[in-house]
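Our collaborator T.R. sent over the components below with a one-line note: 'Predict the complex.' Nothing else. No constraints on interfaces, no templates requested, no preferences about which chain binds where. So this is a plain run: every listed entity goes in together, and whatever single assembly comes back becomes the starting point for the next discussion.
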Amino acid sequence: MRTPAPIAPAQGKLGVLMPGLGAVATTAIAGIEAIRRRLAPPIGSLTQMATIRLGKKREGRSPLIKDFVPLAQLDDLVFGGWDIYDDNALQAATRARVLDGHHLEPLQDVLQAIRPMKAAFDPEYVRRLRGPNVKTGTRRELAEQLIQDIADFKAKNGCDRLVMVWCASTETYIEPGEAHQSLKAFERALDQDDRTLAPSMLYAYAALKSRVPFVNGAPNLSADIPALVEMSRELAVPTCGKDYKTGQTLMKTILAPGLKARMLGLNGWFSTNILGNRDGEVLDDPGSFRTKEVSKLSVLDTILQPEIYPTLYGNISHKVTINYYPPRGDNKEGWDNIDIVGWLGYPMQIKVNFLCRDSILAAPLVLDLALFVDLARRAGMRGQQEWLSFYFKSPVHEPGTKPEHDLFIQQTKLKNTLRWLRGEELVTHVEE
Amino acid sequence: MRTPAPIAPAQGKLGVLMPGLGAVATTAIAGIEAIRRRLAPPIGSLTQMATIRLGKKREGRSPLIKDFVPLAQLDDLVFGGWDIYDDNALQAATRARVLDGHHLEPLQDVLQAIRPMKAAFDPEYVRRLRGPNVKTGTRRELAEQLIQDIADFKAKNGCDRLVMVWCASTETYIEPGEAHQSLKAFERALDQDDRTLAPSMLYAYAALKSRVPFVNGAPNLSADIPALVEMSRELAVPTCGKDYKTGQTLMKTILAPGLKARMLGLNGWFSTNILGNRDGEVLDDPGSFRTKEVSKLSVLDTILQPEIYPTLYGNISHKVTINYYPPRGDNKEGWDNIDIVGWLGYPMQIKVNFLCRDSILAAPLVLDLALFVDLARRAGMRGQQEWLSFYFKSPVHEPGTKPEHDLFIQQTKLKNTLRWLRGEELVTHVEE
Amino acid sequence: MRTPAPIAPAQGKLGVLMPGLGAVATTAIAGIEAIRRRLAPPIGSLTQMATIRLGKKREGRSPLIKDFVPLAQLDDLVFGGWDIYDDNALQAATRARVLDGHHLEPLQDVLQAIRPMKAAFDPEYVRRLRGPNVKTGTRRELAEQLIQDIADFKAKNGCDRLVMVWCASTETYIEPGEAHQSLKAFERALDQDDRTLAPSMLYAYAALKSRVPFVNGAPNLSADIPALVEMSRELAVPTCGKDYKTGQTLMKTILAPGLKARMLGLNGWFSTNILGNRDGEVLDDPGSFRTKEVSKLSVLDTILQPEIYPTLYGNISHKVTINYYPPRGDNKEGWDNIDIVGWLGYPMQIKVNFLCRDSILAAPLVLDLALFVDLARRAGMRGQQEWLSFYFKSPVHEPGTKPEHDLFIQQTKLKNTLRWLRGEELVTHVEE
Amino acid sequence: MRTPAPIAPAQGKLGVLMPGLGAVATTAIAGIEAIRRRLAPPIGSLTQMATIRLGKKREGRSPLIKDFVPLAQLDDLVFGGWDIYDDNALQAATRARVLDGHHLEPLQDVLQAIRPMKAAFDPEYVRRLRGPNVKTGTRRELAEQLIQDIADFKAKNGCDRLVMVWCASTETYIEPGEAHQSLKAFERALDQDDRTLAPSMLYAYAALKSRVPFVNGAPNLSADIPALVEMSRELAVPTCGKDYKTGQTLMKTILAPGLKARMLGLNGWFSTNILGNRDGEVLDDPGSFRTKEVSKLSVLDTILQPEIYPTLYGNISHKVTINYYPPRGDNKEGWDNIDIVGWLGYPMQIKVNFLCRDSILAAPLVLDLALFVDLARRAGMRGQQEWLSFYFKSPVHEPGTKPEHDLFIQQTKLKNTLRWLRGEELVTHVEE
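Returned assembly:
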């Protein structure tokens, strides 16, 4: 195992730039501000709350992660972003109806001060939304404007470092095409105003060009194409993604490893979701839904390894549906029917009803990923960060390998990576 | 880390002696027979179906566990046991209504041939049951009769080795008393016909005395008292327990680590069960229920570590109820309400409805534990086997330490112990 | 109120002809045969099990319905039908996997003897199915062949009377067109081989032409078009329909009246279904699903009367989805989320999970409707029988009126109609 | 049918006196005040929102109930009550955490002005509660003090009429004893300070003595003993009860009639509840739970008539449990497992999960019952009012008769009683 490089200290301000200042972004910003003011604990955030066990169990060494690796301080974070609506963060948060009025009230000043920059938007990629706060121009022009936005934000806010964290909508489904195969092809496509470059790719390109790490919270291709992987390696910028693992898929990556641990078979897994927020509206479009569906469906196969366990997992009916149902608002609800098979082939059922809150689950991921990807940058890590798979529905991975979906392996990988970074012994749970 | 001893080969017949030839035992026996005849795959059994990854991921080495460590062959197993009813195994299986008639039919001859020996029973310990097939005598006399039963069975069936696997009822709740504190006190209590020695302790004593490993599938104290721990160490016999982890608690040890991995808080966890089998009838007695309740309640605290995470897990309403509801039969059903807390303290709910089958989930554990505890014996392991915690609701553990309840750590521990036994590298999920 | 006509006695054999000898029809036939042989009670059948209260409560008069009105005897029933597969009823029942082998075994002879006649089928109307056992010819020729089938069956089986009970698939969605507006237009369309005449209309036409009452168990238009309503009145033949009310919609027409009785408001009602039988396969086609969806969605509006209660029911998100999920087989499962609103607008939720069996719920309706529509014929009732709304998802109704969906009003209507037929006092539940 | 008496007009103020100024009472008061100020519609209240159909359906006559019978106006209501805590109604409402702060804020003045009178309380009857605001004295003295309270309240508030509506806790289980058999025995027991007179009986006695109608919202015996029934008849005062039908039992009386309408059999009905309010705390005491359990269990038998339908309903496992689970607060949650049986005995399951709000469902019943029992008084109706069964879990009924539990028959009874009071034709749903 190679020796880790020394990690640069986290000095100065860290700017967090978010494409999409909607429910997720404003919930994250409001929450971080509340935490800074000691109004709330940082529930759901590993970087703030979790400990990491070091050495043997009997040694009793379990520092907080934030005391173990040099992360940016919450007080050093500055927020900005882009949106197709020109609501400030307070208006957007109020509209999103995630947080109650009494939670927003003490934070009004901070939220009002955050106004979105004009978005790079193409309605062909998100068919159910239209907004006034958009840039115009060719793909190349849009990219240049974003690069300029980044530079302006950094200068204006006196930031030492920046990260970009995608918090906007799911784009329509596309497969990687010719323009995405190399950085050269990508640059040419920019010049030719090639519409196969999705807006999210322009953001990722602008970030990388500016040496800003990019976190992809949606299932969009974005930085996960050969062209931008190449760019991130060459410019030594880390990226990670895709698609925040929050509600139903989080549960899937908890439950499936558990069932497999016990060698229980599976006949089918039927997942349905009802949600009534803007995300639900966007996913009511078949193109955007397809992108999300691919992200959600991939999970089981890699966890269950049907190629190794054909008797148990070789023939699973796996179905995922999403329904736009306005009464739910942001309170996304999942219903899963898991048809398992036991001894002698006897069938059993597990039904999981998750009354969750979409943005409440996503917000701490925004914080953790901003801090971890900034850590990665300072530790000299480049390209796609597989050790952050823990946070994503569709973890990026090396071509030719399979992504790791098992939440518990992902967790071990994340924590052992931190241990490795600091030269601590890796944990194996034997003879402790 | 110390070097493992060489493992004696698994030659000759292995007798599996089960106190309690009811639903669980007969489902296990019938299933193993069906598997031997290639009528069914061994679903739910790690020893038969699971693989174990060796070396680095890219090496692609993943043999079956049963090809990796020298386990007894299914064809070498012989079954016997005790029960308070004198039904043969076919009658008992039919009465239990776990397996359909068409599954039992081809196995009739084998099952009919298995007739229970007279049980050592005390109605004070299981108040809801009475049966005619019972031994009489003092505690000492009962123990001696059991030792004789074991010797007779071994001789009659030409067994090379034996294991004892508890498949009988939950006894009433007791705390370890004076008679349980040392082997000497225990022996004296036997002589004095001391009623604080529960029948399950007599079985465990008889097994250990006969150098037969003891598996404790119920939450009863049984071998988990200082007297018998001492005896198992001195006589170099392994034991393991307590209480098969099957339905609701299995789910709990899958879900709780997942929620904790994400630093989601918990306000409460309400678990209710409905079941209509003999087990449900026994647990309708408050004394027996108390024993089970203690076993079920202990789980969350050790997984969640409220002492380290008081904000998240310091104040949980954890409640478990069991309801005897005849329409369910053996199809135990669990309903869990998990009240979680996220970002800024927002509450969410996870509801899990598990339509499970009690004996179907327990049967493969009988097989795995019989084989693993026999392996442990041949590998020279003695005393309580913590690496088998994976299978138990209340894992035995060293005094002064906490049991490990997290299913995924338990799994890592089990597999890394097997790797260690064979001199293979332990897995850490880093840099693979 | 007009005086009822005398009812002709139920003498001789009653032939029950079923288009579609699949899961529903064979479950009905097998069950009726089992009941005739005293192997099972007629659970789910009003005509066989229900009582009807007469006079004041204190009089204690509650005869069985079958002793109160002159229904055909079960022993007088003879079964026949059409299907696109040429399986006999035993094969079809086995394939449908609704009834266990041990239920079918004693009935083998009877079931094997029932072989389907060739079906009038048009794949344009049911896109997911294809079968070999089909008639050829123009619409007119198909109709004539069906009429001949009916006459042949009657003669061959020595029937005194016949009824036709639709048990086949849901056809694709169509709106009534020109050819359906009058009997004359319909006859002309037959001659012109007009494909807007759905196969189910040909069956209904053939039945009416033969003076055979027609029961419509699917949501297809069938006899519910002006042309055939006209015909049923002129020829004095009763019809009824549409779409057996079995699982989820049955629950809806039970729950919605209850919520309305208490003036609880409604924000939304989300219904999803998973099923894996042939019906599920057919409904996976958007055209057939649309027909079913219209039938399922109509229910709430008429029960809740949003025009009278706009505050409570003026703005409901009502959504119904059906998912083809093979692991369920015929065990259709429904999940309903009912978002209700109470005092001061506070929201509450009712979630209903119905693990039902599609054909088990439908089979007794086949029996009841065959007997009741035959009674109606003998009582001189003609045209659409609204008093049988109790059994249907989309009750037929007079043009310009609204259908009655409330199960409890439907039940009162049915029972008071029977009371009226026999000259008994109608029940009002006052001063009893 | 006898002719109804003329109804005295509803002039002047109507005082509503509530024993128990806790969650239910304060939610009712706050809501009525909000409705008076047009801040909210009276959802859940029949008297305010429901219409009543008159004549034939085609006549289209459906006035609001409040326009059809002469009810007291909301503006004429005045509220008062007793409680063992001396919180004013605002403090009590805040503590109960039923209504959000922003709902209570505009109503602060009204709520603050309502202060509880000292309660007649005996800790033997409600073991889990203790409070400082209690009267002292013998049973006779307590009764006299209550009578004086009533008179004082009436005078002080210038009321024309009063009603008393029980909103306090469930008392421990008792059977009617000697002291309850006649008014004479009751009076003697008062003089002898007989502790078998429960506090709730003293309230009922004081009400009747003051000619004030009494509504019993709890399952306590209260006025449902021969002594007080006799008194209510002699003094021509109406009473009604027992136990508001709100969550789970409401659902039961909706669903059971629906299942019976279809002649579906029942193997079992398992009901569990989790709730965390004061009611849950009180019911955690086995004595109080027993009172509630009896009330909840009685429902199914009378609806299903097992004596008439032994095959379907002769052997039902009916189980009800209540669990005190603090995380739920007032948001009581019910989970029902309904094991139904269909055609040929095939089992099916209905699972109902009701996320309800206890006090939100009860509050409108307080309003309706206050208005209806006042109407009954003005219409000269005396004794137990069976036509108000619609609102109660354990409807009072004539000795020797069975209570009516079917919500739909109850509704018909209520509405037809109103029709009868006004000389309108009763509805039968035939030939409309």
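Summary for T.R.: The mean pLDDT of chain A is 90.
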